[in-house]
Design a protein that fits this description.
The complex is a heterodimer of chains A (about 425) and B (about 375). Chain A is mainly α and about 425 residues long. Chain A is about 70% helix and about 0% strand. In chain A, a hairpin with a 2-residue loop joins strand 1 and strand 2. Chain A is extended and about 100 Å long. Helices cover about 25% and strands about 35% of the residues of chain B. Chain B has eight helices and 19 strands. A six-stranded mixed β-sheet of chain B has the order 6-7-8-3-9-10, sandwiched between helices. In chain B, strands 11-12-13-19-14 form a five-stranded mixed β-barrel. Classes of the chains: A mainly alpha (about 425), B alpha+beta (about 375). Chains A and B meet through helix 16 and helix 17 of A and strand 6 and helix 2 of B.
Chain lengths: ~425, ~375
């Protein structure tokens, strides 16, 4: 009897260890979760408006844009019957599609012409084969004359001899699926020909070069920001609060003026008849007929963007340096380290988190920068984002713009991952 | 490490000003003997830390000369002075392990790897942290970090170690323990130590001599017991330990004893410290534990006071009384185990010897 009681209480004790309960016997974890649920719900409600806003204005548009880079339902929507007929046709056979395909095409085009959407299809196909835009516009005008009782094929060929080319139908057939990789292929200077995926001709290759240039220049800008920002941040962190606050305001001053004004100011300074060149000629360092070209090229972009992004480097560096106790430096010197050893072995390693944070900020901002390269970059100093903007607002090739944007996005994410691997994202401190 | 001879330090007419208008240190003359443990004690702003920084080389002296082993060091940069230093916030390098922290001064001295490791190991064992070499400073408790800081300041065998309020951030119990440890390390190694603190208990327990700083000057430089027993002026008397203050006028001086008429008319006998003539205003300083409470009749000074409050503190009773016009007169009554029939509001006779109360300057 005694034994049993003892073992019973032992069992109970074991139970208590494995599963803590509240007084009324509920598991402690469940009870805690219940107690915290209200808190969590409240927190969620508080951020709900912002969450909704971000979802509607940030996540949805990005998702939509990413979809556009592979979406391609314009062909199957405009020519629904012809697309079905063309699926049965083998482009490798060396023969034109059968009469039925032309009949279907005629039926589709009549509706398309009535709805005035055939030109849009023409411009879409034109991205993959030059001349398609004109072909569809011309055929659209001729469709009024189309006679259902005559053979469709001959009539089409009489409208435009391109309708007698196998290549025309190959392109239509290739682009008939709802999703396409053609935008992504163009983004990396490749195209799909009858021989498979190939590089575009040399003179049409621009995007890979542009991507590489964007990355290289962003790295250069980041490096010059580190070099210029580090001493400034150090000064800010070591000066007495009163003077450092004043200097901090000077660092932030650029944020108070419009980006456009600042960039235009660089134009005034850097152009060949500009302030800097005038000064150099006046001092006699350069000859009047040998003025430096510092704008509308890479130099201009790097100078202007370094200036604009510098605060994003200085601020994280400053906040990290502020936390480094001056006694570290004193301790190091008291142990016999010279100024340089103290800096290199003690001070610098402690500022790495700040360099990391600043570099990530500057690099990511630089790689997607648009307005400054547009204004001071000329042709050799523009970034991939300028090309994206061109496709969005001028050429209206949104699919290609989306594909370029998607590649840029994944490039940044990949670099972020590499950075995390090498430096460790835990080592990043913003303050 | 035990073969080190401590360094001798001499301050000669040293003055320091930060802004060119106020002197933080006014005419400092100080001799520190080899192997001595000297504490600079004083309220904040009294110039003690500035003196330490000048000695370490982080602040230049505005005037005067500092000698280390009889060599002037005013123009020697801090990294060439070879002085070990312990900081209030430990200043352990967060990006290095404990062992790397300790090896840093040895690396700088280009010592070979094997010697480095041996020295680091010995230093860690000295502070009883032998197993912690691979930890990061952040993984240690405050007390452990402090010990590492002490070990690091000693690992390169300096002849002089400076400590700038090293125990300020620790809790009371740990602080007391570290006081003994630092004292023992000092005794074992024989280095000279200059220790800065505003905590008088720390100063009294650890030092060979204490320099009490106030207003940029050393008010008194004495061994701890002298400092407590014979304060030279009323600032030192008030700063070191607890004391009761009674103000009055000197009416007669007989050798080293004087008679003082207190402001309420009471006549007292007191030891002459820095009063010189009859008629001078004086402040009498009296330690609470020197007041005889139970049997005052035999004492040279006997007065009556009103008990205001009785606090029980275990080893002693703290009785707050109103005595001779001072309503904050404190008496420490030893707990001898008997219960005393006394209540707040009663009057009680107390007494003390003439040599226990000091007639000091009344400037304060």
């Amino acid at each position: 009897m005694v034994d049993q009681t003892a073992s019973n209480s032992q069992l109970q004790a074991q139970d208590n260890v494995s599963l803590l309960t509240t007084h009324d016997g509920q598991p402690l974890k469940k009870s805690l979760a219940k107690a915290l649920r209200r808190e969590k719900l409240r927190a969620l409600l508080l951020i709900a408006p912002l969450l909704l806003f971000i979802f509607l204005t940030f996540i949805l548009p990005i998702a939509d844009m990413l979809m556009r880079s592979v979406e391609n339902d314009i062909v199957s929507n405009t020519l629904p019957q012809a697309v079905v007929e063309l699926q049965a046709w083998d482009p490798q056979s060396g023969e034109l599609p059968p009469e039925s395909a032309y009949v279907a095409l005629a039926a589709d085009l009549k509706i398309a012409v009535k709805e005035k959407i055939h030109t849009r299809l023409g411009s879409r196909l034109n991205y993959d084969k030059a001349g398609m835009s004109g072909l569809f516009r011309k055929t659209g005008r001729e469709m009024r004359k189309f006679d259902d009782n005559q053979p469709a094929k001959d009539q089409f060929i009489s409208f435009d001899k391109d309708w007698g080319e196998i290549e025309t139908f190959t392109v239509i057939r290739r682009l008939s699926p709802n999703y396409t990789d053609s935008y992504f292929l163009s983004s990396v200077d490749r195209e799909r020909t009858s021989l498979g995926v190939q590089m575009k001709p040399e003179n049409e290759q621009i995007y890979i070069k542009l991507f590489i240039r964007t990355i290289m220049m962003s790295i250069l800008i980041t490096l010059s920001c580190v070099l210029l920002g580090y001493p400034v941040a150090y000064l800010l962190a070591t000066l007495p609060t009163k003077s450092s606050n004043m200097l901090l305001i000077l660092v932030l001053l650029p944020f108070w003026t419009s980006l456009l004004v600042r960039t235009s100011a660089w134009k005034v300074l850097l152009q060949q008849q500009g302030v800097i060149n005038d000064l150099l000629v006046w001092i006699g360092i350069i000859a009047d007929d040998n003025r430096l070209v510092m704008i509308n090229n890479m130099t201009g972009t790097i100078i202007a963007m370094t200036h604009i992004l510098l605060p994003f480097m200085i601020l994280p560096l400053y906040s990290v340096m502020k936390t480094i106790s001056p006694s570290f430096v004193r301790a190091s010197k008291s142990m016999g380290a010279t100024d340089w050893t103290t800096f290199w072995k003690i001070y610098f390693p402690n500022t790495i988190p700040g360099i990391g944070a600043g570099s990530i900020l500057v690099f990511i901002l630089a790689i997607g920068y648009y307005i400054t390269p547009e204004l001071v970059g000329g042709t050799s100093g523009v970034f991939i984002s300028n090309r994206i903007a061109y496709h969005i607002s001028s050429s209206l090739n949104w699919g290609l713009a989306a594909a370029l944007g998607a590649i840029l996005l994944f490039l940044v994410l990949a670099l972020y991952w590499v950075y995390d691997r090498i430096v460790g994202i835990d080592n990043v401190k913003l303050g | 490490m035990s073969s080190i001879k401590g360094a001798a330090v001499r301050f000669e007419k040293v003055q320091k000003s930060y802004d060119g208008e106020n002197l933080v240190v006014k005419d400092l003359n100080l001799d520190i003997a080899p192997g001595e443990f000297l504490t600079m004690l004083g309220p904040s702003g009294s110039g003690k830390t500035t003196c330490l920084m000048m000695l370490a080389g982080f602040e230049p002296a505005t005037h005067g000369e500092i000698f280390l082993n009889d060599k002037p060091i005013n123009n020697v940069p801090p990294y060439k002075r070879g002085i070990g230093m312990v900081f209030q916030n430990y200043a352990l390098f967060p990006h290095m392990s404990v062992a790397e922290n300790l090896a840093f001064p040895l690396q700088i001295r280009k010592m070979n790897k094997a010697d480095q490791e041996a020295k680091v190991k010995r230093a860690l064992e000295m502070v009883e942290l032998g197993a912690f070499g691979n930890r990061r400073p952040a993984q240690l408790s405050g007390g452990q970090q402090q010990r590492v800081a002490v070990a690091r300041a000693l690992v390169f065998d300096p002849e002089l170690v400076l400590m700038d309020e090293p125990l300020g951030a620790l809790d009371k119990q740990l602080r007391e323990q570290m006081q003994y440890e630092i004292k023992h390390i000092h005794e074992n190694l024989g280095v000279s130590v200059v220790y800065v603190t505003h905590d008088q208990t720390e100063a009294l327990t650890m030092s060979d001599r204490v320099a009490v700083f106030e207003d940029g000057r050393i008010q008194q430089l004495s061994p701890p017991n002298v400092l407590y027993e014979s304060p030279k002026n009323s600032f030192v008397a008030q700063f070191i330990g607890e004391n009761n203050k009674l103000s009055g006028t000197v009416t007669a001086i007989n050798g080293d004893v004087c008679e003082v008429k207190l402001d309420d008319g009471t006549m007292l006998k007191a030891e002459v410290v820095n009063v010189s003539k009859v008629g001078e205003r004086t402040l009498i300083s009296l330690r609470p534990e020197r007041v005889e409470f139970d049997d005052p009749s035999k004492q040279e000074n006997v007065v009556e006071g009103k008990i205001l409050e009785i606090l029980y503190l275990g080893d002693h009773l703290r009785v707050v009384m109103s005595v001779c016009g001072n309503p904050e007169f404190i008496v420490k009554v030893r707990n001898r185990g008997q219960t005393r029939p006394m209540k707040a509001g009663e009057t009680h006779k107390i007494g003390w010897a003439a040599h226990d109360c000091k007639a000091l300057d009344s400037v304060q």
